[in-house]
Amino acid sequence: MYILGISAFYHDSAACIVKDGRIVAAAQEERFTRKKHDSEFPINSIDYCLKEAGIGIDAVSYVSFYEKPLIKFERILETALVFSPSGISQFLQSIPLWLNKKLWIKDIISSQLKYKGEVLFCGHHEAHAASAFYPSPFEEAAFLTLDGVGEWETASFGLGHGNKLDITHTLKFPHSLGLLYSAFTYFTGFRVNSGEYKLMGLAPYGEPKYRDLILKELVDLKDDGSFRLNMKYFGFCNGLRMTNGRFDKLFGAKPRRPESKIRQIDMDVAASIQQVTEEIMLKTANHIHKVTGQENLCLAGGVALNCVGNGRIMREGPFKNIWIQPASGDAGGALGAALTIWYKYLDNSRKANKEDAMQGSLLGPGYDDSYIETFLKNKEIPYTKYDFNDIPGVVAGLIDRQFVIGWFQGRMEFGPRALGARSIIGDARSTEMQSRMNLKIKFRESFRPFAPSVLEDKASDWFNITGKSPYMLITTGVKEEKRLKVSEDEKGFGGLTKLRSKHSVIPAVTHVNYSARVQTVNRSANPFYYDLINAFWKKTGCPIIINTSFNVRGEPIVLSPEDAFRCFIRTGMDYLVLGRFVLEKSRQTISKENIAPLAFKELD
């Protein structure tokens, strides 16, 4: 039996197909359209999923949508009435989208896909909970979902056992940790629903001097992790701004203009809201453990991408094991919606996979050697072809020589993290690599940290971690013995000047507070990527490389060899590895004729 899951019309539209409970394929629409956070109906993702499954739409038994539009519309209507007259203008602006699309999901699915079967609807947080528990390695576990808002719920927790999934507690709109964090994302000048990770990365440069003010004026936090927001400071219920004038007055500043210079208050506000967020996450986890008595915890929802908070739950929380859905945001709702039908609606039995059921989250399109070589030959792109077994050693040598590599292998990752299939990689030991990769390759803010990919069995030698972190969703500290002492002069550095200090023997992946967002790599999940890091370790004694997503700022992660080549040519990358084919930048002829029709806009 095939079940198709869909998420759409908010942000990060995606599709997933499940065959007899096994995840066959999943992908975000943005990767196909090249429009970041694309929210349109995911027709390209659906086409890919059906193709990967080897079926047509007629073979699909059920289509499941990741939320219940009528209930969500009820919340929007009720909110507009409660906050009238100020809330009416926002409601009127949203009406056309609802009347034209969001209230007619069944009709859209039928017309777009020519589908005549049954369409079912899954609650938004039910989909998040399903994506957290059902693919997890646990037969029984507590789960926690945290995000902006679904229909009415902004958070939920409960218990999963076998194929059963019961949400027992919820938090309701407008009291939302996700929306609170997004309000500060807006205030610090980053884009809501996409810039939250920038706020998290900025936090270590500031001091949490506003933490008490936030808890006094904005958030009434209880010991069990539940809270109420003081809505007089926020604008998301009755306007197009996340915050209002009272919020500005409280912090003594206006919101930072996007792309303008980052201020000290932005760093301090980021540090403050990050600390409050971690406190809420930790209190909630403690309460869930007290209520459920479980030793395992599963996490999903957009807030579960806050890897610093996840790290604190892992280190300081009461749970023995935690597992986080790698596609925790709305994209993962498509996966959860499909699995809900298979396990909960159809009551099929479930046996947990000891690793997990996500297959390393490598669920997107892949391209074989034949496709890649045909592309390279047709475009007359110079390359060197290696035996597959030689690639790890060759690339390890290039990294050791301080070259930056575009790494394109196998099936694309599902979720926001590059995990060794669509990655840009480099030497973690380099003192120059962070600034070089940020400014000349990623074209992004200099303060942004890079993540380390480390051999799983070596991770505890370098980082304060005892378990696994395969999906780059845990932040933890670099081991004390790997850190470097800060000089007397450097102790006076503040704000972004902290970047000048070398904090460890792997400075390119060590944040200014000695933390790192770790990805542990084992051979069973991604053998070729493991072999590369293992070759680098044997060559250098360092089992760690830099891993950042294969894209530039403002664009989705690359999908195809064509996307990868375009990104390679546009940036300061030195080499591109497409399967077993290695491209050297110095050999490439950069011209319209060379790469047409790749839409290389910079050459127009």
Structural class: alpha/beta
Q: Looking at this structure, what is the CATH superfamily of the domain at 369-603?
A: Carbamoyltransferase, C-terminal domain
What is the helical fraction, as a range of percent? 25-40%
Number of E-type strands: 21
- What oligomeric assembly is this protein in? single chain
- Largest pleated sheet: 9 strands, mixed
| Average pLDDT number | 93
CATH third-tier fold name of the domain at 369-603: DHBP synthase
Round the Cα radius of gyration to an integer and report it.
24 Å
- Residue stretches low in confidence (pLDDT < 50, at least 5 long) are 596-604
Tell me, what is the CATH class of the domain at 369-603?
A: Alpha Beta
For the record, the CATH architecture of the domain at 369-603 stands as Alpha-Beta Complex
- For the termini, the CA-CA separation is 49 Å
What strand order characterises the main sheet? 13-21-20-14-15-19-16-18-17
Number of helices: 20
Strand composition percent? 15-25%
- What shape does the CA trace take? globular
Explain what this protein looks like in three dimensions.
This protein is an alpha/beta fold and 604 residues long. The chain has a domain at 369-603: Alpha-Beta Complex (DHBP synthase). The chain contains 20 helices and 21 strands. The protein has a nine-stranded mixed sheet. A five-stranded mixed sheet has the order 3-2-1-4-5. Strand 2 (14-19) and strand 3 (22-28) form a beta hairpin. Helix 7 (177-187) packs antiparallel against helix 11. The protein is globular, with a radius of gyration of 24 Å. The termini are far apart.
